[in-house]
Amino acid sequence: MVDLNKKRALVTGGASGLGKAMSEAFAAAGAHVIVADVNAESAEAVASDIGGEAWTVNLADTSALDGVDLDVDILVNNAGIQRIHPITEFPLEEWRLINTLMLEAPFVLTKAALPAMYAKGWGRVINLSSIHGLRASANKSAYVAAKHGLMGLTKTTALEAGPHGVTCNAINPGYVMTPMVKGQIADQAKTNGITEDEVLEQVFLGHSAVPKLAEPGDIAALALFLASDAAAVINGSAHSVDGGWSAA
Ligand SMILES: NC(=O)c1ccc[n+]([C@@H]2O[C@H](COP(=O)([O-])OP(=O)(O)OC[C@H]3O[C@@H](n4cnc5c(N)ncnc54)[C@H](O)[C@@H]3O)[C@@H](O)[C@H]2O)c1
Predict the structure, then answer these.
(1) Is 185 a residue whose pLDDT tops 90?
(2) How many structural domains compose the chain?
(3) pLDDT for 200
(4) Residue 53, SS3?
(5) Which keywords belong to this entry (predicted)?
(6) Of 43, 48, 54, 143, whose CB neighbour count within 10 A is largest?
(7) In this predicted structure, what is the pLDDT of residue 201?
(8) Is residue 199 part of a domain?
(9) Is residue 185 part of a domain?
(10) Could you tell me the pLDDT band of residue 233, with boundaries at 50, 70 and 90?
């Protein structure tokens, strides 16, 4: 059993999907969880269910966050979105939004959280990357670039923070059935000219040796372990949860 009593955890994108599952798991282990999300109503609902607090914040507004001080023991950089276009048609604003939210915001929050972690000599930074932090897919240039960049930030944070008792690791899921993935089914069907059932079989499970999608709870269980004292020497690592996709 992981004991997170007296720990404060900040989970971005905590109002939905993987962030919600991780918020619930950390709270169940005793942590005080701050559910940070742009969706105020859902963040309040999750926070109220788990006895935590909501922080309504647009993490794409990174200038407003630079210079903030965060007093948390565990930081989970999880908020994310997806946009699918070929490079030749990718709107610059969408490309920038993805990279601001999914790479710049984790940098700014890590910068904000490390001083208090260093002062305590204990901390955990967990970055929700993706199989797309390790492999590319066509039509996802912004997402793949942001997730590969997040791997670089994870490794650099690990090297700087490790001597202070603070670890930083990445979780790299293949597909997990969350609202984000449900939203992609129709998009992928349109872009690839196939049916939604074919998207599930060919796109979402096409690379997985295990013929099932991961559940949000599978990711939360791994995040909980990475936050535990038992994971003190796991640092700068990528943790794939992809049914074998990255083994090929
Ligand atoms: N679901 C998957 O299959 C999968 C696979 C690999 C990686 N991931 C990664 O896991 C993370 C969570 O994905 P999910 O599937 O749970 O998504 P989700 O859509 O269910 O949840 C994402 C959350 O982020 C919040 N968010 C979006 N924009 C925001 C902003 N500007 N400021 C603050 N919050 C914002 C949303 O309101 C939402 O609550 C993402 O980083 C995603 O890239 C997901």
Answers:
(1) no
(2) 1
(3) 85
(4) strand
(5) Oxidoreductase
(6) 43
(7) 87
(8) no
(9) no
(10) very high
Query: What is the side-by-side order of every strand in the sheet holding 8-12?
Result: 53-56, 32-37, 8-12, 74-77, 123-128, 166-173, 238-241
Residue 208 maps to a domain? no
How many angstroms separate the alpha carbon of residue 119 from the centre of ligand 1? 30
Determine the pLDDT at residue 245. Answer: 96
Residues ≥6 apart with Cβ < 8 Å to 81: 97, 98, 101, 102, 180
Asked if the structure places residue 214 within a domain, the reply is no
21 lines ligand 1 (CB under 6 A): no
Residue in the structure block whose two tokens are 């710049």: 104
163 pLDDT tier (thresholds 50, 70, 90): very high
Shortest-distance Cα residue to atom 21 of ligand 1: 16
> Which tokens in the block code for residue 106?
């984790």
Q: Which domain holds residue 108?
A: 8-178+219-242
CB-ligand 1 contact for 78 (6 Å cutoff): yes
Residue 188: the pLDDT is: 84
Pocket test for ligand 1, best of 178, 207, 245 (most atoms within 8 A of CB): 178
Mean pLDDT (the chain, rounded): 96
Q: Is 227 exposed, middle or buried (0-12, 13-18, 19+ CB in 10 A)?
A: buried
Report the CATH number at residue 237: 3.40.50.720
Residues involved in catalysis: 143
List the structure tokens of 169.
């690791």
What distance in Å separates the CA atoms of residue 69 and residue 67, rounded to the nearest whole number? Answer: 7
